[in-house]
Write a structure and sequence with these properties.
With 310 residues, this protein is α/β, with parallel strands linked by helices. The protein has a domain of 189 residues: Rossmann fold (3-Layer(aba) Sandwich), CATH 3.40.50. The chain has twelve helices and 13 strands. The strands form four sheets. It has a seven-stranded parallel β-sheet, sandwiched between helices. The protein has a two-stranded parallel sheet with strand order 7-10. The chain has a two-stranded parallel sheet with strand order 8-13. The longest helix is centred in the N-terminal third of the chain and has 19 residues. The chain is globular and about 55 Å long. The chain starts with 9 loop residues before the first strand and ends with a helix.
Length: 310
């Protein structure tokens, strides 16, 4: 594999306190890189500081101080994203599009040469607001003049991830497991640890630059099968109850419109039903990044084992 000549990098990282960010930080440090993480509240980022991460106080929704925070770094790893809006300030447009623009401009002003950007599988100009703003952010990165790699993960699974936590609660705590619609729509869950390795390689390798990679796990699974695997691994097999879309959609829309707490919002429902898989038979983790991705079952076994130790 072709790599840049310098083995170690000084990385300016956004989103380091999030589910994916924590794993990416751990992976980068383990490979000998230095990390400076952008955080809004340093008091809530003690875990990063304890690992030796340098903290820079700032927010991608405000331009002030970003260039200074990125100064001296070799590359940017930009992970910040949201799956729910909290208007008026926290919106897909504000975070994904304008936030990425600020990060790109700050990187250029600071003299950073490369950016590795986390997008999402299904990003496109005619999708949901989430998908559309993810696509717009990709285009900003592609036109930035920086060397770039864009990663588009499918559903990311691991301890502390919203997908695993939500589905585990549904499978383990309810007498039956509700399934939206017929459950035949497919997902391609990818291990958060594999995503972190992909980000590290994207940072290190020159041969990956200038491209966009769709990242998925080894298996394309129907939602029905995913529910069954959760039940098998957590020892709580429940009968599935299929809830018609004609009943679910109005309730989800109502909860979304009124900002009510719900396990899924309108955007997520639309993306769930359209499937979240890498099209074709290729697998970028295997073919471009050179390793075999872990299965959903292996992730759940790891989580179950960690829970048993606790």
């Amino acid at each position: 594999m072709e790599r840049n000549s310098e083995a170690q990098r000084f990385v300016f990282l956004t989103g380091g306190t999030g589910f994916v960010g924590r794993q990416v930080v751990r992976c980068l440090l383990g490979r000998g890189h230095r990390v400076r993480a952008l955080v809004r509240d340093p008091d809530s980022a003690g875990a990063l500081r304890d690992q030796g991460v340098e903290l820079a106080v700032g927010d991608i929704t405000a331009e002030a101080g970003l260039a200074e925070a990125a100064a001296g770094c070799d590359a940017v790893v930009h992970l910040v994203g949201i799956i729910r809006e909290r208007p008026p300030s926290v919106t897909f447009e504000a975070v994904h599009t304008r936030g990425t623009l600020r990060v790109v401009e700050a990187a250029r002003r600071a003299g950073v040469k490369k950016i590795v950007h986390m997008s999402a599988l299904g990003a496109r100009p005619d999708g949901t607001a989430y998908q559309r703003t993810k696509y717009e952010a990709e285009e900003l990165v592609r036109r930035s003049g920086l060397r770039f790699v864009i990663l588009r993960p499918s559903i990311i699974v691991g301890e502390g991830g919203e997908f695993v936590d939500t589905l585990r609660n549904l499978v383990c705590r309810l007498p039956v497991t509700p399934v939206i619609g017929d459950g035949s729509y497919r997902l391609q869950p990818v291990d958060v640890r594999d995503v972190a390795i992909a980000f590290a390689q994207a940072l290190e390798r020159t041969d990956l630059e200038g491209r966009r990679y769709e990242i998925g796990g080894p298996h394309k699974l129907t939602y029905n099968r995913i529910v069954e695997i959760f039940g098998e691994e957590f020892g709580t097999r429940r009968r599935k109850i299929h809830v018609p879309l004609s009943f679910v959609r109005p309730l989800v829309d109502l909860a979304s419109n009124w900002r009510l707490p719900a396990p899924i919002n309108s955007e997520q429902l639309a993306m769930l039903l359209e499937e979240n898989i890498v099209h074709g038979e290729s697998n970028a983790l295997r073919e471009s990044f050179g390793f075999e991705p872990g299965s959903l079952r292996s992730v759940l076994q790891r989580i179950s084992g960690e829970s048993d130790v606790e």
